[in-house]
Amino acid sequence: MSWFSSLKKARAQKYQAIENEEDFLLITWDSCRYDAYVKAKTPRLDAYCEPRKAYAHGTYTLPSHVAMFQGFLPHAHIDEPFYNRYVQQVWRISHRKIHTKPLVTFPPHTKSIVTGFQQRGYFTAGVAAMYWFNDADTLRDGYEFFEVTGFDAQKQNELLLEQIGKQPSNRPYFAFVNYGETHSPFRYAGMAEPENKVDERFSLARLFNQKGVKRADWKFDEESFGRQVACAEFLDTKTAELIEDLKTRGRPLTIVVCGDHGECFGEDGLWGHSFYHEKVMEVPLLIFRVNGPPHEPPVASVEAPADAPAKGD
User: Which of 17, 88, 131, 185 could form a disulfide with 202 if both were Cys (CB 3.0 to 4.6 A apart)?
Assistant: First the structure.
């Protein structure tokens, strides 16, 4: 390792709020709106954490994940660390003065939190359902391993566990999963076949081929909403299975589970997402740690370098 690389690594360590003995897992349920999650039976995740209603930073996959990879998780208007970034963030790139030290802080100008973890020696691995991750290079930056699988939660779990299992047991990791079953057409492996051609109603053409104009004579589509609820129940099982397998590693693991955006099911005459509507912005957010003590309260105030802009986010 060159002297420059050693200096760079030492500088990165200086900004780390915790030791390199904790792993991190970010999971997004694509298109899952908050009320669908609450309606779903999610006993396995309920055992870990109660969902908070949060608000996405984007109306579709690309901008929402770009924001998250820059350290901005969906925001909940509650006075709790991690759910409200003004109380405390999980991870942050230190480019402005901040009031409370995040759990993990990266140096100014770090390209993304994924790159930041990679520069610290973490194994960075991601699997995604949505093809935005093929189309936008920025969504794959910093990953040592990344694969776009399509809608297949079981395959995603197996791939991620395989890749992490190849690493030394003491090497920390940042892992990412984008599950797609809660996205249209709202189907999961083994889902009972509908009696009619109901899937045609949930195709992308059905959901997005609309004028995007609010109407007074709208009707809520209970059937499509119910299908997303069913997919959320499926992902409760698959998410918990992944967590249980990762827990066997025995290391502390901080987990974030959230929707990247929501979905309209006919409200105000609107279908799908990629536009601003409260049901597109409202998403579930869960943050918890396994194999370790609960997260500590916010720690002492920390500021970025003196030449950083003074204005907060």
Answer: 185
In sequence order, the 6+-apart residues with CB closer than 8 A to the CB of 227 are 185, 186, 187, 202
Q: Cβ neighbours of residue 253 under 8 Å, at least 6 residues apart? A: 22, 23, 24, 25, 243, 246, 247, 289, 290, 291, 292
Domain boundaries, given as residue ranges, for the chain: 7-290
Specify the DSSP element, H or E, that contains 254.
Answer: strand 253-259
42 pLDDT higher than 90: yes
- The residue type of 168 is P
The structure's pTM equals 0.87
Percent of the chain beyond pLDDT 90?
64
Q: Does domain 7-290 have CATH number 3.40.720.10?
A: yes
Is the peptide bond prior to 172 cis by the omega test (within 30 degrees of 0)? no
